[in-house]
Amino acid sequence: MTSLRIDRIKAFDEFREKSKEIFNSYADTDNSNKRLDGLYSLCICPGGRDGGLNKKLVEVFYGNRPIDSVIEVSRNFRTITRLETAQGATLAYFRTDDGNVICNLYPSKSENQRPSEEVILLDYVTDPRLLRTRSKRHWKSLIAYMEATCIDGLPNIKHKIRVFYLRNFKRYVVGSVEQSSKALNLVKDLSKYVLTIGLSGFLILLITMFKGNIDSRRADAQRQEVLGVSRKALDEISNISKRIERIDQKLALIAKTLQSRRSDSNDFGDKK
After folding, report:
1. How far apart are CA 196 and CA 183, in angstroms?
2. How far is CA 257 from CA 46, 99, 175, 200, 266, in A?
3. How far is Cα 48 from Cα 13, in angstroms, rounded to an integer?
4. How far apart are alpha carbons 141 and 44 in whole angstroms?
């Protein structure tokens, strides 16, 4: 009897082997891709762009294209002409050792222009059998992100809405540091504010009610009880915040590891 990990790995292997067929079917019916493919050339690479040797990786990306030329002075004071290039967006599936799949979205960029985020953490798939179904949504995100970030992009209203969702409701990486989604940060800040203000108002109300109590000893005991409850509530809020921070740190480590692997892969490709 095989383990769940082995089953997940087999499911990812099946997806990798059929990835060209899957994404070509999406590309053939996508009008935006027809234009972008003519400019940047769509590439579907089971095993990655470095010769397809990485069985843990599937990459779908738009390639590079020259966009301009600049004249530079070499060391011997001769002028040389150098081409400037733009690189298309990338959709990458990384299979982890336990068989889960991390789906990342990398923006299009040129030598002199790039978005602030280095990568968007698009999806985390614990059941690779669902990759075939989810890949359609991932493809739409790739097209929208390509249209929004490439210098030749022509994003329509649907593309803009999808990219707004990606940038505000997905985790992302800036400066090699994984960031929580902007929406989550807003909710956390609002929750802390509401809890703090609400608890303060509650305490003020109770203390005001106790001021008229004739029995000072009883009032003091009641105040102490209220303060004890408030301390427990504040401690619980603090514990929740710490747990959220620990989860953020673990996810940041995963994102940093993936970013490092991708950088190593690009360095290897440059050396070739």
Report:
1. 20
2. 21, 16, 14, 42, 14
3. 13
4. 16
Place of tokens 């009897």: 1
Indicate the residue type of 66.
P
Burial class (CB within 10 angstroms; exposed 0-12, middle 13-18, buried 19+) of 233: middle
Quick one: tokens of 49?
């762009």
At 70 the three-state DSSP class reads: strand
How far are the Cα atoms of 53, 89, 174, 243, 250 from residue 255, in angstroms, in the given order?
22, 18, 11, 18, 9
* Residue 201 CB partners (closer than 8 Å, separation 6+): none
Q: Residue 70: which of 34, 112, 10 has the closest Cα? A: 112
The whole-model pTM stands at 0.70
Please report where in the chains the tokens 């067929």 appear, as a residue. 21
pLDDT tens digits, 149-176: 999 999 999 999 999 999 999 998 998 8
The count of other CB atoms within 10 Å of the CB of residue 216 is 9
Instruction: Give me the torsion for CA of 149, 270, 64, 91, rounded to 10°.
Output: -50
The length of the chain in residues reads 272
- How confident is the model over 8-24, as pLDDT tens digits? 999 999 999 999 999 99
As a whole number of angstroms, the distance between CA 12 and CA 83 comes to 39
Going by their DSSP bridges, the two strands 177-179 and 79-87 should be labelled as: unpaired
